Fold:
Amino acid sequence: MSTGTSLFDYTPPADQVVEEETEFVTVVSLRSDSHKPKGKKYWLASKLDDERFELLLLNENRVPAGDPEIISSGEFAAHYSLELDYYQQHVRPAMEQQDGRLSRGEAHREQGEFYSAEMEYADALAVDEENVRATFGLGLTYLEKGDVERAQEVFAKVLQLKSAFTTEHKHMFNDFGISMRKNGMYREALQYYNRGVDLDSADENLFFNIARTYYESGDWENCFRHLTMCLEKNRGIQEAQKFCHYLIKKTEEDETMLREMGAGDKGKTLRSDILNLFRKMQVAAGVELDDAIEKTHEIRDRMIALEEEDMQMKEIEKDLYKVDGDF
Structure:
């Protein structure tokens, strides 16, 4: 299927990540471990509200790693001791250094300095091998410098990281999807967009990008479906409106598109499904229902005419070249 990619260059703005307000407490340890200075475990503790605390286990490099644990304020008071000096002397400097590596990696990547970005992200992952921000950044770096094979390895790792699947990382999945789509990695892009949808199914930008990916891969049915979902969530997105009207105009001019829309094993059933989606997409974009129905009927009639034309051409070729095997 050939669709071209010169529709328009639109990247929906990433949502500003609004982090839930937390009151930082400090580093804590289990009171029961007080007699084991060498085997002692430490956690970074944040107060979520009056009833709950979040604990992140510190790794051997003294930075928080892994999945958070939520405990009650009663459990926190009963079983944990504050470690103020440990935080100030060891944890805070380690966390600041890690944040510096990540910030430098992002700055290098934005400036096209991919080797330097890769080194910074690699250093961050040496400190915390499951750091989500560093893993995403490294994958994007590989993609942007054209190293698709290594990017795929990183992306496979992301899908295994439980800590990646939180709402605060939704925009990273979107960024990944955009980069993969631009590299023709449609299957992988859809994986990441759908992970983003799992995190926030109300984000219309994700559905727009899914529709765009299906468009570029020539899957008209899913393109119409997801663009409709985008418009139903927010009809006011100008680029989604623009995309819809582009598709309407394309059906008027592109016979290849109409042939592809009616192709497949399901034949007329598939054609009916696509036409229903095409009508719904127009209505979602604000087209009057009667006008959408009329336009859909026009497209249906052209699809049928093209199908009959193709059948007649096959009959002519059959007679002309005796392709039925009778020589």
Observations:
- Residues 1-10, 14-22 have pLDDT under 50 and may be disordered.
- The beta strands are 23-30, 42-47, 52-57, 69-72, 80-82.
- DSSP finds 13 helices and five strands in the chain.
- The first strand starts at residue 23 and ends at 30.
